[in-house]
Give the backbone structure.
Amino acid sequence: MQKTLLINPKKCTGCRTCELVCSLEHEGEFNPSLSRVTMINFPEEIVTIPVTCFHCQEPSCRQACPVGAIEKDDEIGAVVIDDNQCIGCNMCLMVCPIGVISMAGSSSKSHHAKCNLCDGEPECVDFCPGGALEYGRPDEVLWERKKKMAKHLRNLLEEAI
Amino acid sequence: MSGWMGQILRIDLDNEQVTVERLDRQLAKDYIGARGLGTKLFYDEVDPKVEPLAPENKLIFATGPLTGTAAVSGSRYNVVTKSPLTGTIAASNSGGYFPSELKYAGYDAIVFEGKAEKPVYIVIDDDQVEIKSADNLWGKTTLETDNYLRSEYSDKFKTATIGPAGENLVKFACIMNDRERAAGRSGVGAVMGSKNLKAVMVRGTQGVQVANKDKFKQVLKKSLDKIKESGVTNEGLPALGTAVLVNIVNEHGNLPTRNFQEGIFKEAEQISGESLADELLVKNKACAGCPIGCGRVSLVPDGEYEGFGEGPEYETIWAFGADCDIDNLKAITKANFICNELGLDTITMGTTIACAMEMYEDGVLTDEEIGLNLEFGNAQAMVEAVGLTGKREGIGDLLAEGSYRLAERYGKPEYSMSTKKQEYPAYDPRGSQGMGLEYATSNRGGCHVRGYMTSPEILGVPESLDPFTVEGKAEWTKIFQDLTGVVDASGICLFTTFALDAEDIYKLLESVTGAGYTEEEMMQAGERIWNLERVFNAKAGIEPDEDKLAKRLVEKPMPEGPAEGKVVDLETMLDEYYELRGWSSNGEVTEEKIAELGI
């Protein structure tokens, strides 16, 4: 089964480590504005949620790309832009419903900044201290969540009986 | 440059002039950044005799080379100025997101000078810097100000702001960034208020460079592993926040109670980190790049102390709790929220109320005079006093001067539990001798984060020391003080040192900056920072005979508990400390030391 990136906002402490290690990996510097994952902060409620490419099954960016530079890599589950083919028309950026494609670099040497799941070993997942980001087969990740909930239900039932 | 951004922003509020200067590479290496770099810039530019609230005093926001990086907890900045509370150098440290954003906008530091004619705020959007009228924000709380600024511009901006306390020149007003992180101590918010500077907002799109990316990642992994292996950083702090200390310090008989009259608070359990987690905690919150996440988000859902926000920290719980003989955690949390909104340092606020409570108990302060029943244990009066202080109304006007000036006004300075007019935090040094030396010699007055001797004396980290002996404490204190200087200057959080040692920090610093440090040079930079602060204080008129403790701590034996019968043997430790520092026998920094460190 194809792996996928799963976000668990309840575990996010808002530390932004994901943004820092992402920009280091892909841009060679610490720069959240170029990170492929963005921590969105709701300060009044003190809630933070990491947002990144959902690697859609039917990616609108792929549909919109006039030169066919965007493909879904079935092995790692990532929607990937081929920089060699990309002509920089920004169509993908315009149609992405999640808003997770942006431009990086100077105007003469720019490239798209979009999550490629680090070729199957996402740095953000590796470094996330709270475990808010997970990468794996969805059935396995969700199985762990189900098990946790089942344990909780079991305790409740045992208490009640 | 790697690590550093290489630019200093200078904002002249008198003439509304904004200039950008290059950061000198050697200066950066010698003083690292944040507390070190800020102090060096300040020392070179400001007359030490300056009146703290005069336009000639400057206010410096300084980040470190690790600020804005993924180096463990690299989220910090320091606000450096001359303190209106102590008359010493002030360097107040805060995390959150604002400090990193300042780096992303391209600056290592901002120097604010002069005084705006009318209230202003500053908008920094990468290289675009504007000074705007803050007429409509003056009088607003910190949260209202942050709400307004983000809604008016973009919520991508990070803010640092003062509340009414800073505007009213409360001597221990703080600067709040990202709503509820505080550059808390020594009244840096009052200096900002004296400049008619309400807020600074910043947004940036530039990157912090890394000299050796592969090496950095390797060092980071190792550092994160150590954080995970430490009971303090992986269990205590995440689970219970800094309030994990309430029960631990109380069990050692070191939790100052009723203005340091006692060392055991019988109701400690009710105000402990455990109770906070059970009753009020909503979730944990981390500063940028932090794997620990000691921040608390708390909710008091209803009743007279209703509120929601960040905190309370250990020191806050203690100051409004044990020190005021108050066991109502909701009232303590409410007092914390009010401090955050008005922009008050919770430690000096709580301890000043505790001081007033003892004066009230002894009849020095009377009902008629203060219009408030300030009996020990009166939670309602405590909460009311906090609000009055931020607004300088009624008794609040007296409390706004801090405990030392309050007590001195009545001819009884001995009621103030302070050194160099800054109040002690939550550790009674009679049961932690090294902490006594640290309080006495701290360059910003009573303070726990200049050389946290509680760590070896109470927590047993990095090794366990007998808290009651003075033996070896001078050397430990010196090393802790110098290392803390390095940590503060680098831009990472002091809490990392529960798990990381000097070598780990050195490797992080060197892999990011590539500045060619040796570990010895790095530690010497810490010593340089410490001595520079000391030299500034001497020129400001703070003499070595101010390296002392409140009489109670050196004369009156602890009445009960594990530290029963103890006083602080300060003199013995001081003599040894001065010698280890290479200062004169009466504590003056010698010309030889100044030359050796190249100050």
Q: What stands out?
A: Residues 4-160 of chain A form a domain with the Alpha-Beta Plaits fold (CATH 3.30.70.20). The longest strand of chain A covers residues 38-42. Residues 126 and 133 of chain A are 9 Å apart (CA to CA). Strands of chain A lie at 4-7, 29-30, 38-42, 47-51, 70-73, 78-81, 102-104, 111-113, 133-136.
